[in-house]
Design goal:
Blueprint (H helix, E strand, L loop, with lengths): L14 E5 L6 E5 L11 H10 L1 E5 L6 E5 L11 H12 E5 L6 E5 L9 H8 L5 E2 L6 E2 L11 H8 L4 E5 L6 E5 L13 H11 L3 E4 L6 E4 L10 H10 L7 H8 L5 E3 L7 E4 L6 E2 L3 H13 L10 H6 L22 H10 L13 E5 L16 E5 H7 L7 H4 L8
Antiparallel strand pairs: 1-2, 3-4, 5-6, 7-8, 9-10, 11-12, 13-14, 14-15, 16-17
Amino acid sequence: MAKSGISKNRSPSQTIYDTCVNCGKEYKTYQSWIGKRKYCSPGCRNAHKLSQFVYDKCIYCGKEFRSYTSWIGKRKYCSKDCRNAHFQDMYHEKRICEECGEEFLSYKSEPTKFCSHGCYSENKIFVGEQECLFCGVMFKPSYQGRKYCSMDCYFVDTGKRWSIEKVCSNCGKQIFVKSHRIGRGDNYYCSLECKVEYRAQKAIWVKSMCETCGQEFSHKPSEKRKFCSNDCMMEFRSKNATGLPSFDVYSEQIVFAVENRRAETDQRVIEVKCAYCGRWHTPSNQTMNATLSGSRNQNFDLKFYCSAECKQECPIFRQQKYPKGFKKASSREVDPHLRQMCLERDEWECQKCGATESLHSHHIEGAVQNKMISNDLDNVITLCKACHKEVHQQEGCQYHELQCKENNKY
């Protein structure tokens, strides 16, 4: 419950006396409430507010309504209904629709003649034929008030746009061509049908034989078509589907960078050479498309690998030339062509343990120590990664003993 009287927490020195605005009596208040509290009680406050009410007259219905003195000249209506009705009488007027005859409200500033868009559309439809004002041809106008059969007649008769008289290249009919179309070509047509017919007669066609049904069909010289229709093409693909990349499709795209041939087991399938070990293998369609896409869009080298091990062992797989932080190698890598010749000679087997994966080519005589035979086929031997590491752990063949020096340029 709210406590009456002065709070015990406040000292008597903080209380003062003020005068009520309504009754004029003195009442006890606090020093901090000066200017905020004006009445001695709620009854005086309500009585003072009622004394400020005045009565005004509504300009629409004439009724009296109660308002404040500060609202005199601002509030003119007793309710929202009177205000809306007054606005409607001021800015709207009643009209009769020219199509259906019904009465409707419209703005006085707008020359509206119809109660809805449906009545407007029905009134604009013109039934029957009309004579063109320029050429005299009878035509069916799409809307009421149209006077010309075409835009050419309208432009020539009114002179709003300069048109030039030409002859249709197909049927010889006299037509009017707009000035901005002159010079774009030597032929002009009166209709789309004449354009299609004329181009079909003048076109140069090449005849070919369909590989599926054997029927002869015509096509443009720029189109390298082998089938007369899409049905024949789909039928040919379903019969000859192998699930592997086709030699006819991919050979021309990679022949400039990758050595390829037809597979011995199936002449329709392509075989490519591994960029690391030189084995002939057939990549999947996904690998072929991904490699071609990477070489075109991301400037990757167009190289194929027969396995993931060859990718990891290849020293140039996804490598950049002199990247940031580049350091010179401590040993010389075997030439790629020499490595492939060495692996093919040793039948892709480690000559020490017989392994067939992660194969390297090892220099028997160091490339730096004996430069004359560094690219000699008899100076290299096939070893697996583990055996190659063991060989370079022997005394006299360790990497720090065979490392390339700054003055040994090769």
